[in-house]
Amino acid sequence: MGVSAVELTLASPATGPVERVWYSPDGAQLLARTAAGKVFSTTDYETWKPAEPVTEGPLFTIAANRLPEAGARLVAAGANPQRVYALGRHLFRSEDGGRSWTNLTQYRSDSVVGIGQHSLAVSPVDPDQLVLANDFGVWRSADGGLSWAGLNQFLPNLAIHRIVSTPTGTAGTRVEADGFGLLELPPGGSVWFRSDDGILNTETALRRQYSSATRAEITAFATSGSTVYAGSADGRLWVSLDSGQTFRLSRTETAGPVERIFSDPTESRVALVALGGNGPHVLRTTSSGSLWDDLSGNLPNVAAHGVAADRAAGAVYVATDRGVFLTHTDLENATLPVGDWSSLTDTLPAAAAMDVRLDPAGVQLYIALDGYGIYAAPAPHRMRNFRIVSAADFSARPAAPGSLLSVIGGRVNAARGGNLNYPVLSASETESQIQVPFEAVGPNVALSLQTVAGPVTLGLPVQSVSPAVFVGSDGVPMLYDADTGLALDARNPAHSNGRIQILATGLGRVRPDWPTNMQAPLENPPAVIAAVRVYLDGAPLQVTRATLAPGYIGFYLIEAQLPMITNLGTSELHLTAEGQESNRVQIVTEP
Question: What CATH number is attached to the domain comprising 473?
Answer without folding.
Answer: 2.60.40
